[in-house]
Every structure is written in structure tokens, then in C-alpha cells.
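Workshop exercise sheet. Pairs work together: one partner reads the sequence aloud, the other fills in the structure field after running the prediction. Swap roles for the next sheet.
Pair: D.N. / O.F.
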Amino acid sequence: MLIIREAQEKDNEQLISMELKAPQGETIQLVTERKDYFYRAKKFKDPVLLVAEDDETGKILAIMGVGPLNMNLRGKNTKGGFIFDWRSNPEEIKGMQRPIFRLWQALTAHMEQLNLDFIFGYVKEDNIRSMKILTRAGTKVTGDKTFLTIPLHKKLSRNIENVKFSRKVNFASDYKKVKKVYGTHDLFPAKPDMQLLQNIYNKLVYGNFSYGNSSIKVWDNSAEFNFRVLNIPTLFKLARPFMNLLAPILPVPRVPGKGGTLKQWFLFDLLLDKEKDLPPIMEKIRLEAKKKGIDFLIYCQDNDQPVEYLEKISWLKVPYKVLFMPLNKGVPLPQNPTYHNPIFL
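Structure field:
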């Protein structure tokens, strides 16, 4: 018998194990090693996280969550929900359509109770299966995001003496600055819980890097998860010993071995006054990241608002689709570009 229920702390070990069996990527396969499966849910005030469970075996077949937020939509304060942690058990490939459909129905009922105006989420462009399920349920593709992967092996600027670094970021005052630039973007947070966000910032924001009137912040999720390498292409395996030997003296990237880990920093809230401000900021971040054992920097770019310099220095560009579903009549689709909130990471 299939039952739908709220995810509980007792499910932590089983959910983490389920994710470890679902590698990402094709050429380089990675798995996400979470220290707490619920880390993303805990960033929302009233998250809904449901599982579909086989009552006879106790095995979790699928999980799906929604994080409610007040957000800007076409200039109005609306209540939406971000879809996160949508996973199916990779050991139960056959017959998964029914559990996922039941899970979706239950989650929809919860959304009605929360009086949400809409839900939305990001789906990797090549995830055809998830895209089909969500579009059949009534969601629409409304935008494109690209996650830019920036390596740390190459020097970007010599002019870093005037780059300022603030380790602590006050969310309330920072929010006012960011709102001046992104406040009119759809999906920008409206009336956020200042104390909740300050607590999250204290834990996960590494700091703010600025040069002149330009700045960008760094989000460090390494306390919550790492990526472990399951497999790398043969060419990488052969090149790895030589590249890692040369890495200390030549600008070549570190190549992880099978079983090794990758750590990333995420860049967010780019406030750009002049394009020429970016190289010294990025060089300062690069040097700081190398000291902390970080392997790559990631920036989520809205394709309607590209950042030419970050595109130029990125190594890998991973495309995602923004999917959006109105839950009430008269709720419009978002206009691009849309704001990327770091709590979605």
C-alpha cells in the first residue's frame, strides 16, 4: 500500500542514501553528499516536504518539497512556493508514475491550504522526464537560467589592493541595497523574515567582496554538502597525475580523482557599476577560494541578463529551465529576468 506523509527526521538516513544512488552528470558523475537531508527545507519558515512510502517495506519511493515565500510578481506582493528536493528512488524505476502523481496531488492540496498564488522551480534542461511530468501537471516554461562554472587555476587581475572584503553581512541593510537593483525583478523576496535570513547569512554567507560601487557576495554551502566524484572520463584519468603535478607552478585546473570531493562557492547578488570592476573582485575571490580549498565558483545567470565577463571566464555552462504554475485565476506569468534567491541552492 502506498502512503503519502510528511518527511520526518527519522527519514534522514534513508533519504541521504537515496540521493547517493542518483549521480548527476554524464562525462563526470557526481553525487551530492548531504550532512542533513533537510538542510534546504530549513531555509523556509513553513516548508512542506512530503514522501511517498511503500507501507509494506517502509521504503521511500519519492520525495517533493515546497518552500513558501512572499515575492514580487509584476509589481505586487504575492505568495509563491519554490519546488525543491524533488527526487524519486533510483532503485524503483518501474511503476514510479503512480507514486509521483499521488505525491503531486497531496502537495497541491497543501499548497491550497497555504493560499499560495503560484509555484515555480528550476529543472535541468536535459531532465526530460521531470519536465514532462511538470508540464503535464500544468506548469509552463517561462525562462532560462545558466549555472556558470568558473575554475580557479587562472589569474584574473593584478589590481586587487582596492578590493574590500566584509566577512559579516547584515541582512537588513544589505537587503535595501540589493532591492534597489533587483527589487523590480519578478520572484524577488518581499517582506522577508529578517531574523531567519540573518541566521542563514551568519551560517552560509562567506562574505561580501566590493570594488568601487560594485560588489558580489559568496555563499558557502560546504557546511551542508559536498560533491563526491563517482566517475571521470578516461582522458581525465590519464591527464590527472600530470595536471595536478603542474598545478602549483602552471595555470592548470585541479582534476579530482574517483572517490574525491569537489567543493564550490556560489556567487550571488551581483551589483555591477562598471564592467571593469569585475576582474579585481573575481581575482580576490579566486585567491580566497584557493586558500579555503574550494575547487570552483558557480554563478546563476539569467539568460535575459547575461554577464559577459563571467561567461568569458567560465569553463562549463549548465542550462536550466524556469517552470512556473499559477494556482489562482488571474495570476500572471513572471517577466524575465527573474531574481535568483540564494536560499534555493
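Discussion prompt: The chain has eight helices and 15 strands. What would you look at next?
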